[in-house]
Amino acid sequence: MSKLAGKVVTVTGAKGFIGQRLVERLKKMGFKVKTINSLENINLPKNSMIVFHLAAVTNPKADPYELNKVNYFGTKNLLKKVLRDCPDAVFIFPSTFGVYRTPNEDEVIKENYPKNPTNDYGKSKLKAEDMVQKFSDQFNLKVRILRLSNVYGPNSSSVITRWLKAIKNNEQITLTGDSNQSRDFIYIDDVVKALILSATQKLEQKSIVLNICTGEDISLKQLLDFMLKIAKVRIKILNERGNLSNVGFFKGDFSLAYKLLKWTPKVTLKKGLKLTWESIN
Predict the structure, then answer these.
(1) Which of 23, 60, 127, 159 has its CA 20 to 30 A from that of 97?
(2) Residues 192-240: pLDDT tens digits?
(3) What is the radius of gyration, based on Cα positions, of the chain?
(4) Cα–Cα distance between 83 and 75 in angstroms, integer?
């Protein structure tokens, strides 16, 4: 049993993909978990030692007003309640690789890589990041900002899950844009581990920003080929040129997370794809 067993932690967005797995893991560790599903009427336990803020609108095509309402103003509302009710808590804020400038091939993304989001989701998260940092600077709040690469796993809404479901149903898959563009895919269990370590490790820094990724990228074309080999099937694939404005080669660097948290990803892409494939069969 963890020495932190019985301690109170709060999780927003507990019904989401990451939130469900995080809550499950926290309970197994013995934490008392308080969940919050609305950022408008927030009641924080005054003895919360950790606040995981996972509630967010993540669809890049969502209405910009809704993105800012939840991702920025919702975060601001929660931070105010943290300062009022549990100012000694550690505030965990998952962000996204979408805050970075679109990288060129062979570039590796470290935490100081230039920021220039290409969609409203990334813009809303970067804006919220800046606010979280200001709260830390002004009010001495302990914050951990974790920039996640492409998270996938069973029951996710990731391209991996969508494609595997299409493969299962023998449906056509359309590759839009440059199929050579690449992404750094990370399995849900590794993300949950990073979230918990960032909250429970004793760190000197009041605020830190960490990349949570695998350090390896794969092109979308290679990814699809890999999936078809795992499923042992063939399907029709349509290539469309589409919008090339967001073509990039996203490959992250997690060396700072390793240095501070001793965290490394454990689930290989091959294993993660098999686990996700098995979950839908």
Answers:
(1) 23
(2) 999 999 999 999 999 999 999 999 999 999 999 999 999 998 888 877 6
(3) 19
(4) 12
